[in-house]
Design a protein that fits this description.
Number of helices: 6
Strand order of the largest sheet: 1-3-2-4-5-6-7
Radius of gyration: 16 Å
Number of domains: 1
CATH class: Alpha Beta
Structural class: alpha/beta
Order of helices and strands: EEHEHHEHEEHEH
């Protein structure tokens, strides 16, 4: 039984996926709820948790920017330990996925799934956040919108990402996978594809 500060979805016997939120949204945003429910329907045990700054926001104790990186990384390490899983899958939305990628090898994760990786800040493509992704050994799936202001196909192609990483592109999607109306695809279709990609990846590695 997991600690009660996890938000759990899916069968207890399924592969465990620890799922962290992005910088601005809590663990129960519509996006997080939809992805967690979709993975759960496909047999994955999803455990969501919040970083300290988001828990404080929920309790009305503070607002503002996320915790500093060392705090975020320690939160990930602690969540992995408290999950009770020997080798869980890890990942998250944007910031949550990026922080997971920085502890995945160290914590011997079974796999890593990032929903919208922040390769660089919007408008600052020279400030890349990819150095550790060139040598990561953990099997990794990055699911990215083609119009993501944090990293588009032409930029990502030049990063020299490690052989353990696979990037899947969602048609005309932005950072939340939302496409333009004229694209011929809907946001829900992109999110459902992301869920299917993630579930298949986890099942193959499990």
């Amino acid at each position: 039984m997991e600690p009660d500060d996890f938000l759990a979805d899916g069968p207890e016997g399924g592969p465990i996926f620890l799922f962290a939120h992005g910088a601005g949204g809590a663990m129960d945003t519509p996006f997080m709820n939809r992805v967690a429910a979709g993975l759960a329907d496909r047999g994955v045990r999803v455990l969501r948790f919040e970083f300290p700054y988001m828990r404080a926001r929920r309790e009305g104790k503070r607002s503002g920017a996320p915790d500093r990186q060392p705090v975020l990384l320690d939160s990930w390490r602690d969540a992995i330990r408290r999950s009770g899983a020997e080798r869980p899958f890890v990942g998250g939305k944007s910031l949550g996925g990026r922080m997971a990628s920085m502890v995945a090898d160290e914590m011997k994760a079974a796999g890593l799934v990032c929903f919208g990786y922040p390769f660089h800040p919007p408008g600052n493509p020279e400030r890349t956040r990819v150095e550790h992704l060139r040598s990561i050994a953990t099997p990794t799936l990055i699911i990215q919108g083609e119009r993501d202001s944090f990293g588009i196909p032409e930029e990502v192609a030049g990063y020299g990402l490690g052989a353990a990483i696979r990037v899947e592109w969602l048609r005309d999607g932005d950072h939340s996978f939302k496409p333009r109306r004229a694209s011929g695809v809907t946001e829900l279709e992109n999110v459902h594809r992301a869920i299917a990609l993630a579930a298949n990846f986890i099942r193959r590695q499990d």
